[in-house]
Structure formats: C-alpha cells, structure tokens
C-alpha cells in the first residue's frame, strides 16, 4: 500500500494579509452591570461554535440574541490560541466551516474564490482540490477573514458582550444566566464552551502551578525559550510547537508516551463527517459509542508534518523519546527543567511545554450537576434538539455533543450539524411560546 504524504510547504500560508471587510459595528464591550435584562437567546461562548449558532438563529428570524464571552471578541480566544502556536493552516478542509447549513449563505470555499487574487499559488491549488472533492488545507488567514465576514454580515459583534458566566439556572420555561456583573433572563441558553486544556496529573509535580520553566501550550513561555526545548504530547498542537522551536534554531526533545507518533489527514476518521458515519454511531448503544470515541479521538498529526519532522530527527535537531509515560517533572539546576520517564530516562531542557490534549466543557460548574446528567464524562442530551434532557431550556454545541454526533462533534463541521438541529429547535420553541402567549392574551382580552 502506498500512502501519499503531502509536502510541508502547504503549512507555510502567509498571515496578516489585508481583506476587504463588510462594514459592521464593533464588539458591544463589557456587559453593563445590573439585573433584569432579558433576551430570547443567550449564547455562552463566542468561538466558532457560538458564531455558527448566532448566524443560524439570524436566518431563522431570531434576532434578540446576546453572546457572552470571557474576551468579548467573536472568535478571539480561538485565534489567540492559533497565534500563540504560530499556526498558519487549519486541519479542517474547506467544507468544514462555521457557516450555516440549509440556508443561502456565503460558504468558506466561495469566500476564498472571491478573493482569488490575494491567494498564493499553493492556496489556489488547494481550492481546486476542494472543488474536485479532494482533501484540502485551509489557510488560517482565509478562515479568520471568513469568520469576520460571518460576524459582520449576521450582526454578531454588536450582540457580543464581555462577561464571565458563573451559573446557568433553568426552570419554568426560562433560564437565568449569572455573570460577575449581574444576570440575564433568557427563554433559551446555548452553551458553546469549546474545550479546555487537559491538566497534567498531580503526580508529576504535586498539586498547584507547574515548576519554573514549565508551561502549557496555551500559555506564553519564557522569552527566548532557551536553546533546548522539551515538548510533551503526541498531537497536532505538539507538532506546531516543535516546528516553531526548530524554526527558532532550538534543539527539541519530543516526549511521546505511545510507541510512535500517528499521522492522518483529519483528527477523526473521515467517515464520521458523513451522514452514513453518523448513522453508524446512532445505531449502537452507549458502551459501543464509548468504544468508538476511544478509538477515534486519539492524538494525531497532519501528514504535512511527517517529512519535516522525520528530516529534523535524522539531522539530530529533533530527539524523539517514544514509548514511555512521564513520571515526574521538576526544576533542574541553573534554571533548567527535568522530565523523568517511566523507563528511567531523564530528558532535560531549558523550557518544557505540555501539550496534553483538551477535554470538552460539558456544562459542569455552570449548570447544577443533576441537570447535566454526566455519565462517563458526557452530558445527557436530547439527540434531536441538542438540549439537555433534564433542562430543555439549555442546549449545547461543540465537543460536549460527542456522545450524540460521534468523534466529529469536536470538529467545526460537527458544530454545523449540531447547530442545524439546535437552531431549528430553538426557533420552533420560541414560536410556539409566542403563540401560546398570544392565545392567552386573546382569551384574557375576550
């Protein structure tokens, strides 16, 4: 069997290009202090999933929408993380984007073609690949400009407020959303919380903050980073960290607990992005779904990195420590870091970065635990509407829907599928509620 491995030059898309923008108002700013405000829908989180939900509701005629986000910028945290990694392309192909399914709207591929003159020769070839139905790589620059277009054309920025949500309490057909600045009452709430980084086990250094010289992938490391860097983790984030350190002229030591790294096009098997793949997931019970999630949520790296990393290893610039879990991480002598492995090996460096993956935010900590109904780390959801079974006033979009949509739930295309179900159900619920209210008013007037 011959495997086609794309060349690394696909990873070198430029950043920072100027894109024509649809005129729009800026973000709404910090949520005004106080209580008593209301909205038809409150969306918690303004990342790609939150943007998708807001855009879909706009097409359903639901405009009384508020987005609450810790940064107050649609897509801000998502792109800040990408910038921190120096990432230039997305793993998701052109058909996976936060645009709206089922409505006439500008798709990501259409947007890229509209700006053909701004694209590099390599980027244009990827568009031709996408048009032919083949896998394609999307530049971050194009994706970010497209998200800005969605935000402007669906009036999302003016509805986005900076606030930290502390509690969501449903009941009586509405839900109260409490923030550090007050509370809102909504007829429906959508949690688009994304994923949080996976923390290192307490046994690595004891509870608390990491030792000096150790940081997580979504934190800024020491200025300069030293001459020797250690990266722990086997996924795409680790690959970006490694290539960034290599480009900076550092010697990199890569720690992987598995016997070897795994390269593949998508982060999950492509079958799960198609309707027949989702049906395969639908037809089995809970235990079988858990098994599928375990098999297809494994850490992997885009094929484009393979020649680059293999060449660096052959040249001695990259040293890979395979097949031994980390047992201890500690500060070394002279400001260095020591990573001790289960087989006794000691890996030292000037700085260590931990890329241990992410965990879905399922609503625990915001909703009462009894309403989340967590089982094996997953919430109990209505598969038709994406609402919590025990709290129909609250829906969830994103990785937390994994046990409904399968491994693709964490991908942007999974957000599209979940949004299609949730937005239609929310719009229907709001219309039905309005109809009931109008009927009661008519009876009272008679």
TrEMBL record:
InterPro entries to which the protein is assigned, alphabetical: FAD/NAD-bd_sf (IPR036188), FAD/NAD-binding_dom (IPR023753)
GO molecular function annotations of the record: oxidoreductase activity
Residue ranges constituting the FAD/NAD(P)-binding domain according to the UniProt record: 40-259
Domain of life: Bacteria
Gene3D superfamilies: FAD/NAD(P)-binding domain
Identification of the protein by name: FAD/NAD(P)-binding domain-containing protein
Species of origin: Amycolatopsis balhimycina DSM 5908
């Amino acid at each position: 069997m011959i495997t086609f491995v794309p060349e690394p030059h696909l990873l070198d898309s430029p950043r920072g290009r100027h894109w024509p923008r649809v005129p729009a108002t800026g973000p709404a700013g910090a949520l005004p202090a106080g209580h008593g405000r209301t909205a038809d829908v409150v969306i918690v989180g303004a990342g790609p999933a939150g943007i998708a939900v807001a855009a879909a509701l706009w097409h359903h005629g639901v405009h009384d929408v508020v987005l609450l986000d810790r940064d107050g910028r649609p897509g801000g945290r998502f792109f800040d993380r990408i910038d921190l990694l120096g990432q230039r392309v997305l793993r998701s192909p052109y058909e996976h984007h936060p645009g709206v399914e089922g409505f006439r709207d500008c798709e990501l591929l259409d947007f890229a073609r509209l700006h053909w003159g701004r694209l590099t020769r390599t980027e244009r070839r990827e568009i031709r690949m996408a048009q032919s139905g083949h896998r394609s790589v999307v530049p971050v620059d194009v994706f970010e400009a497209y998200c800005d277009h969605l935000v402007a054309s669906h009036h999302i920025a003016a509805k986005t407020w900076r606030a930290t949500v502390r509690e969501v309490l449903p009941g009586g057909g509405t839900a109260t959303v409490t923030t550090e600045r007050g509370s809102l009452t909504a007829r429906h709430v959508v949690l688009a919380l994304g994923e949080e980084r996976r923390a290192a086990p307490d046994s690595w250094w004891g509870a608390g903050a990491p030792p000096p010289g150790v940081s997580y992938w979504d934190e800024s490391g020491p200025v300069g980073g030293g001459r020797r860097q250690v990266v722990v983790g086997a996924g795409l984030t680790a690959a970006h960290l490694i290539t960034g350190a290599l480009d900076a002229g550092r010697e990199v030591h890569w720690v992987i607990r598995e016997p070897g790294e795994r390269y593949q096009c998508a982060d999950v098997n492509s079958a799960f992005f198609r309707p027949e793949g989702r049906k395969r997931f639908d037809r089995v019970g809970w235990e079988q779904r858990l098994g599928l999630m375990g098999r297809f949520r494994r850490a992997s790296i885009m094929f484009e990195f393979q020649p680059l990393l293999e060449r660096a290893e052959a040249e001695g610039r990259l040293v890979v420590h395979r097949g031994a879990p980390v047992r201890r991480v500690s500060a070394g002598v002279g400001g260095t870091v020591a990573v001790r492995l289960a087989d006794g090996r000691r890996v030292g460096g000037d700085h260590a970065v931990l890329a241990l993956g992410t965990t879905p935010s399922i609503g625990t900590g915001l909703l009462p635990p009894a309403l989340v109904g967590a089982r094996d780390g997953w919430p109990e959801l209505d598969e038709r509407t994406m609402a919590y079974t025990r709290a129909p006033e609250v829906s969830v979009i994103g990785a937390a829907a994994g046990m409904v949509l399968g491994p693709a739930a964490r991908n942007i295309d999974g957000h599209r599928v979940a949004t299609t179900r949730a937005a239609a159900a929310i719009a229907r619920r709001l219309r039905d509620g309005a109809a009931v209210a109008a009927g009661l008013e008519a009876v009272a007037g008679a």
